[in-house]
Input
Amino acid sequence: MCGMNKKSIIALAIISLGAIAGVAGATHSWGGYHWARTSNPFTIKLGDNLSTAWDPYLSTASYDWTLSSVLDTTVVPGIVNPKTCKATAGQVQVCNSKYGRNGWLGIASVWISGEHITQGTVKMNDTYFSTSQYNTPAWKNLVLCQEVGHTFGLDHQDEDFYNSPLGTCMDYTSDPTPNQHPNAHDYEMLESIYAHLDSSTTLSQSSASSAQDVDHNDPATWGKALRYSSDKKSSVHEKNFGNGSRVVTFVVWADPDHARHE
Output
């Protein structure tokens, strides 16, 4: 910097600070969609339709997300068949089953009316989680934490499998070990999403859903692919039913190289 004058140094510092602020301020809300509620913190019920082997991972995800200052989660008995994992109004149903070699490891669908989330489902595919590649605590923590996080209005922080892990479950990665839990930016994003209050709530008592369903074994029913990850696979889909009603589906694909050899 010997040849730089004072103004040049100050300008460079401002540019550098702006770049840092841009990274720190990066958003991973998807469209500002959120659960309608009249106060913070509010409670989201996670319906436990999981096998006993998965229960500790749901407990971990529930604990982690409840560290947020704006929302709490509580695990309640599930009320749906895990194989179909039908949505119920006002709750998030969490399921596991051997859903087959359909390509996805975990998937979350979130129903929206206007700008408000009304219900969600999370599925863990034991067809792949029973393989040596994915039958590990790290992979189970990462995928379950991420899919549950989507049902609160969070998007992925990053979708490149091959860059350095960000230390959050909302990050795509080939190394799950550092990415098993939310990080500070996830909690900050939730505070931003839920900074305002609504005049009504979509967190009603559970009831049978009248919303249109999605066949998770048939990507053609997921709607338009909105985004692709670094491996060229779709990561987010949206199906529009009209009149402000839609369902957004987030998918984590299994690594085909590992999956086909098990």
